[in-house]
Amino acid sequence: MTARTGAETIANGIALRIAAAGCFSIMAAVLKLASLDGVGAPEMLFYRAFFGLPVVLIWVLSRPDGLKALTTRRPWAHVGRSALGIASILCVFQTLTLLPLADATTLSFTAPVFATLLSFLILKEAIGPRRWAAVDLGFVGVIIVMRPGAGNHAVPLVGIGFGLAAAVLTAAVTITLRQLRDTEHVAAIVFWFFVASSIVGAILLPFVGHWRSPQILALLIASGVVGGLAQLFMTASLQKAPVAVVAPFDYLQIIGAVIFGWWLLHTPPSLNTLAGAALIASSGLYTAWREHVRRKDSLIQPTSPPV
Fold first, then answer.
1. How far apart are CA 268 and CA 276, in angstroms?
2. Residue 105 vs residues 122, 125, 167: alpha-carbon distances, Å
């Protein structure tokens, strides 16, 4: 591969990641609009998964290995990963129903902070002082977003709770994915998660679902299609460029949430939201960069100290 070809491949990876961030932003905005009509998190789970599944299946069939990529040697590992992922998505969607779009999206990006904590507690990874400082910075950002002492303008604590629970569960999913990717094809991980989400959503739908107007139904179907595309763009970006290169572009979702929240919902972001988002994004970006440096150094010096 020439230098020019390599640069073009990385540029394609970045473009795909930006497309993924855009799709995730649209999905969140569409679901927020649906929540104004009383659509709850379990309904969102079903429509997002069920109508995203055909998109994922088309992608699987278009690959050289086709349906063979869906075979698994660790079905129970997929069950555990799916359980964590479904719980995470339900918390994410519940957060969307309770908080302004920008605040809900910002809180979701505390996941790298919790991933650092879980890697320390569960995987016993050594965490250096600079990464601990990044964790502290992320929590300061959360406190600012919460707007303590702001009276009627404070963010509802129950919404904050669901947002942070979603981030913790997302971090736990990250830990399980590290282990699954050693033996499982990425297509299998994505496909079976969508299948599990569709099944759980279908089970919950008779108890919490309601007949929806054609407009709301269209929004829910769109959330599934756009969410499926977002998943595929994100996966494809990792095949074109290293995660350390493309991951920073995920934070464009915060900008998308601010724009859509202001434009569609007439909810301008508060200064606290913008300041907290800046700190949380800085924490996540620094953590991703140090993780990249640590892994790169470990290839040269396996006993290098934690950073």
1. 15
2. 26, 28, 10
Q: Pick from 47, 71, 54: which is nearest to 189 by CA? A: 71
Write down the pTM of the prediction: 0.84
Separation CA 272–CA 153 (nearest Å): 11
Q: How far apart are CA 160 and CA 98, in angstroms?
A: 9
Distance (Å, rounded) from C-alpha 216 to C-alpha 1?
48
What whole-number distance in Å separates Cα of residue 276 and Cα of residue 106? Answer: 8
Q: What is the pLDDT of residues 11-62, one digit of tens each?
A: 888 899 899 999 999 999 999 999 999 999 999 999 999 999 999 999 889 8
pLDDT at 307 (0 to 100): 40
The predicted pLDDT at position 32 comes to 95
Tokens of 224: 């599934």
Going by C-alpha positions, the residue among 85, 76, 108 that lies closest to residue 95 is 108
- Residue 115 to residue 133: CA distance in whole angstroms: 14
Cα separation values, 60 from 27, 63, 163, 241, 303, Å:
22, 5, 32, 20, 40
For residues 106 and 160, what is the distance between their CA atoms, to the nearest angstrom?
11
The 3-state secondary structure of 160-221, one letter per residue? HHHHHHHHHHHHHHHHHHHHHCCCCCHHHHHHHHHHHHHHHHHHHHHHHCCCCCHHHHHHHH
CB contact burial 109-147 (16+ within 10 A = b; e otherwise) = bbbbbbbbebbbeeeeeebeeebeebbebbeebbebbbb
Q: What is the pLDDT of residues 134-145, one digit of tens each?
A: 888 888 888 888
